[in-house]
Amino acid sequence: MTADRVRTLFNRIAPVYDQLNTSLSLGQHRVWKQMAVKWSGAATGDHCLDVCCGSGDLALLLADCVGLQGHVIGIDFAAAQLAIAQQRAQARYPQPSITWQEGDALALPFPANHFDAATMGYGLRNVTDIPRSLRELQRVLKPGAKAAILDFHRPSNAMIRTLQQWYLEAIVVPAAQQFDLTDEYAYIAPSLDRFPTGSEQVMLARQAGFAAATHYPIAGGTMGVLVVMKG
Ligand SMILES: C[S@@+](CC[C@H](N)C(=O)[O-])C[C@H]1O[C@@H](n2cnc3c(N)ncnc32)[C@H](O)[C@@H]1O
């Protein structure tokens, strides 16, 4: 899929994206996102980045973690997702310390060695150039800083993999159908088929210049968090 089509897709699903995520994961995506924030090493007062922030879940959790002394930038190229993220942040009191920025994960508009920690949730599978996206993330992190990258994963257990494929086809796509978004959600299964496995992600992260990389399978291996550290 081209970057333009990815952007159009995420702009179109923006109004129902949160609701569908929550019902299809039975609320579990919030727990996985909290794990990613913890593994990013973000701490009070830090300056953090959430790449492919979408409607802002991870950026909002990062903001809770860094507090008002810290700051979070949520970046995404889909304006409709950012508008929802902004509304969600504005509905909070006190206002979290977040800037929402339209921009490309493949050409991050930040200087090198800039952020204390970063997250990326369900973004790596959607960028058109994974190695470049990892190189960009590596560039903008400070030496010693970590990033946690959460996404779907193909479980090594054949039975769980079959269950995952059935779930995506028989539950996720029909659920999206009620919002007239069948095609938009049918893309998840093929994108997962193409997505590098945990060990391949570790290799790509090392090639992108990260000093350390570990992939943690979670949710029975149907999801995973790649934790990377800049040397
Ligand atoms: C599946 S959503 C994930 C949103 C959010 N991180 C979450 O976990 O709910 C993927 C997001 O990646 C964004 N995206 C994909 N490629 C991008 C790129 N090259 N630059 C910026 N954003 C991109 C899409 O616009 C979309 O909002």
UniProtKB/TrEMBL annotation:
<keyword id="KW-0808">Transferase</keyword>
<dbReference type="InterPro" id="IPR029063">
    <property type="entry name" value="SAM-dependent_MTases_sf"/>
</dbReference>
<keyword id="KW-0949">S-adenosyl-L-methionine</keyword>
<keyword id="KW-0489">Methyltransferase</keyword>
<dbReference type="GO" id="GO:0008425">
    <property type="term" value="F:2-methoxy-6-polyprenyl-1,4-benzoquinol methyltransferase activity"/>
</dbReference>
<dbReference type="InterPro" id="IPR032904">
    <property type="entry name" value="MenG"/>
</dbReference>
<dbReference type="GO" id="GO:0032259">
    <property type="term" value="P:methylation"/>
</dbReference>
<dbReference type="InterPro" id="IPR004033">
    <property type="entry name" value="UbiE/COQ5_MeTrFase"/>
</dbReference>
<dbReference type="Pfam" id="PF01209">
    <property type="entry name" value="Ubie_methyltran"/>
</dbReference>
<comment type="pathway">
    <text>Cofactor biosynthesis; phylloquinone biosynthesis.</text>
</comment>
<comment type="function">
    <text>Methyltransferase required for the conversion of 2-phytyl-1,4-beta-naphthoquinol to phylloquinol.</text>
</comment>
<protein>
    <recommendedName>
        <fullName>2-phytyl-1,4-naphtoquinone methyltransferase</fullName>
        <ecNumber>2.1.1.329</ecNumber>
    </recommendedName>
</protein>
<dbReference type="InterPro" id="IPR023576">
    <property type="entry name" value="UbiE/COQ5_MeTrFase_CS"/>
</dbReference>
<dbReference type="GO" id="GO:0043770">
    <property type="term" value="F:demethylmenaquinone methyltransferase activity"/>
</dbReference>
<comment type="similarity">
    <text>Belongs to the class I-like SAM-binding methyltransferase superfamily. MenG/UbiE family.</text>
</comment>
